[in-house]
Amino acid sequence: PASMTVSELQNADLTAKVISDGQVAENGKVNYTYKKKTFLCFSSKINGVPTEPGTYIQTAKAGGNYSCVSRTITVIADPQPAAEQPAA
Predict the structure, then answer these.
(1) CA-to-CA distance for 32 and 41, rounded, in angstroms?
(2) pLDDT at residue 47 above 60?
(3) Which of 56, 61, 59, 6 is nearest to 35 (CA)?
(4) Could you tell me the pTM of the whole model?
(5) Distance from chain centroid for Cα 83
(6) How would you classify the pairing of strands 23-24 and 19-20?
(7) Alpha-carbon gap, residue 19 to 12, rounded angstroms
């Protein structure tokens, strides 16, 4: 999706799959890094999956002779519950 809420992101599958000869490599090791977009560029590296609203670059680097892939993840705040209406 173009964007996800914090809760949706926590339940999303953000993993990359290493595929060799059309098959998923069960022992394929992938390392992930996340960088948060600041005012002018992506520079603030964070540890683990983002938990705050913002725009992030996720880079997945596979071991061996494989390459890196990157994608942009936009995280928005979870909607706030509507205020309760007073009883009439």
Answers:
(1) 19
(2) yes
(3) 56
(4) 0.69
(5) 30
(6) antiparallel
(7) 20
